[in-house]
Structure formats: structure tokens, C-alpha cells
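TA notes. Do not distribute before section.
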Amino acid sequence: MGDRAGRVIVGSWRWLWGLPVESGGKVAVAVAEESLQSMQESVQQLAKAVAQQVGAYERARTKYRDKIDELRAYEQQARLAQRAGQEDGARLAMSRAIQIEKLLPALDQQVQQAGTFVEASKDKLNRERNKLEQYKSDMQNIKDLAEVNAALESIAKVNNEFDIGSARSSFEAAKNAVEGRNMTNAALAELSDNPQEKLAADLDQLSLDDQVSQRLKALDSTPLLPLPEAHQP
């Protein structure tokens, strides 16, 4: 997909779902899978590029070997022409051999440079393949960890829904509130009773009790008078 397309996709996910990658949920797993797919495609493209480099290197080596063979052929032609007394032919063949001989160092350097590039590209391809395998393993670990996180979240949700400790705390708080209100009401009732009025009432009761006792004693010392007789009609 490429880096730009990948960023667009990630941005779309964030816009549609409203969840950041940092949340570590399903969005993060999806982004990791998309990134892994992008890396796989990049490694495939790199492998194709390395294959093209190897092909170009092999063609360059073949061309270099062909030039060496061509140089040897011209030298052989010059040797045979000279032995046959064909001076002009010998000189022409040797001049062509000399031209190729001058070209060979540059061709050799290019072939060596191409070989260096190819080896570096192969090493890079191997490193990227190793990294890709590591990322594949990490991808599986990410999925497994995401599943564990989801399970833990489910457990936490159940614990929160059936939190007896929370209910117990609420009960204790309600109990304390009721007891506190009872104590408050008792204190208010006690404060609402006027102590002066209570003292006066107590004194009046004592005085009444004393008067009753005195009157009863007076009854004991007074002779009992006969009741008047009723008149006969």
C-alpha cells in the first residue's frame, strides 16, 4: 500500500472509530496487520529489484568474459597473420586487441562494483526478510496479547458489575447515616426540653406531695364525727 496510503488508512480508522492506536485495542491490531502487509509487499518489491540487479550483474560478467575471449581471438589472429606474412592483417588484429585491452580495466571495475552492489542488496534483502519473519511472530504475539487484554477487560467488567465490596461500603455508609441522624434527633430532643420548666414542675410536685402528706396526718389526729341522720318523712 505504501507509507502514504498506510497513513491515510490509519487516519480514516481514527476518524471513523474515534479510537487512537495507543489504546491497544482492535484498532492497534488492525494497524499492525496493515503495516505487516505493507512490509511484506515492500520486501517482495525489494526481492524483485535484487533479482534485476543480479541479472544485470550476470550480463556484465558475461560481457566482460566475452571481451576477454575477443581479446584472445584478436591476439591469435595477429599471431597467425604475422606467421603468414600478412603484416597489415596482423597489425589490424593487434590494434583491435589493444583497444579491447584498454577497455577491460573499466569493464572489470564496473563488474566488481556491480558485484558489490548486488552483495549489499542481497544482505539487505536477507535482513529485511529476517525482520519480516520477526514481525510475523510479533503479529501473532500482538493478537494473543490483545485477546488476553480483552479477557481481562471482560473479567474487570464482571467484577465491577458484581462488586459486593462496593455494596457493602454503601450499606455501611447508609447505616452510619441513619445512626448519626438518630443521635442528632436525640440530642435535639434533649436540647428542646427547658431545664427551668422541668425544675419548677419537680418543685410543684414535691410541694403537692408534702401537702397531701400533711393533710393525711391531720386526718389521723382528728376524731371521726358521726354522720348526720337523715330526717324521717
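Switch to the second chain here.
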Amino acid sequence: MKKEDLSAAISYIDVKFICEAEKCDMKTLKIHKTKMLRFVIAAIVICLLLSITAFAGITLTGWKPSIIFDGNNTQVDVSEEGFFKELPDNLPVMELAEPGISMTKSELEELLGFSILGSELSDEDILYSYSAYRNFSNSSVARVDIMCPEFISESATKYISMSVGILSADAEPEFIDPFKVGPDAAGGKIYLENYCAAQSGFDAVIYTYEDMPSWLAAVFVYDDMYYSVDSRNYSIEELKAVLDTLK
């Protein structure tokens, strides 16, 4: 309800009860005043509830994950809308600076209750690192981070790592904010292009760094999860070929 609508409603209530009061004695007037007061309080409470609900909607859906490229002074949206995931209860959580839990892809998916993207180019026994963090105001899980430093390894100098950021549907703003400008805090990022993956159809934002041209990165949102694929000594065409294998 708009502020002016609420003001008009209250004014209408005043006029209505004053007119009725002219036809009543003082005892009746007191009853009307009590009713009027209760009505006004109820209207204000409803207005506040509507405002809170609208604010909550903006907090949850009124943002886009983006990445800022200071190398060429531009900002690119990674997705058209924010992303959240329903997470199971009783997930293991970490304290600050506590290391993650190593597990295979199948173990990880069994824990989470849903699948993450993989590649036929990855070793079958590759290990992932799982971490989860609580909200600041309650004990519910706010965010899950998955890391795979050796997602694809061709040699000691040519390899690809992958990370996945998952926001809980209960995530507080402090956990959402990093994705509004991109969780990659490194400076000198240069936007290259967007690329649509052949198998899974996600739209990846590909970029590099001013002082590290051999390091290419691709970020995208798929199935309400934020993926970051980092490559060392891959050409952009080779990186695209890897993105095409993700499913």
C-alpha cells in the first residue's frame, strides 16, 4: 500500500466516524473512537507487513550475478536473475578457516541430493573439496562451496580447475552480495566473449587477465549454481571445447 493511499484511508475513517458521532451521544462516541483506533492500527500493521514482504522479494530476486571487468571498464551479467538452491537439512558445516571435506563426485551428489556438472575429460576418481557455511543470525546453511583444483589435468602446466558456489534459499544478504559484482576479486580482468555450451546450453562469460594472458576463466549459472572454470595455458578454442563436454 502506498503512503498516500494509507493517508487517504485514514482521512476517510476520520470523516466517517465524525459524521456518525454527530448522531450519537458521548457514550456511543467513545465506542466509535475505540473502533476507529483499532481500524487505523490494523491498517498500519497490514501496510507494514506488505512493505516487509515487498522488501523480502527485492532482497531475494531483485539482483543479477555480474562480474566487473576493470581491464576494459565494463560489467557483464552472468545470469538474468539471482539463483538459490533448496538444500537438505543437517548438511555438515565448517567454521572459519576450517578445511573442506574431500569426497568423490558421487559422494558429493549423494550428500547434496542433486547433481553437479562433470566432464568425460575428468578422472573418475577425482576428489572434490566440500565446504558449507551458516548464516550469521541463525544456524541454517547459507552457502556451499565446491572446489576441484584438478578437474582436468593434461600436465603440470596445463590444467583446469572448477569451483561451484551454491546459495541456500535462506541465504542472508552478506552471502549474496559477492555474486552481484563477481566473486573473482582479482584485478585487471578483461572480458573476451560469451559462449553457449553445446551440451548443457549455459551461457558462459569468458575472460582473462592483463598480467596473465595464459589464464582464461569462464563463469556461468547452471541449475541455480554458480560455476567458475579456470584454465592455465589453454587457448580460448580449447576452453570452449572443454565447456562443450560439461553435462
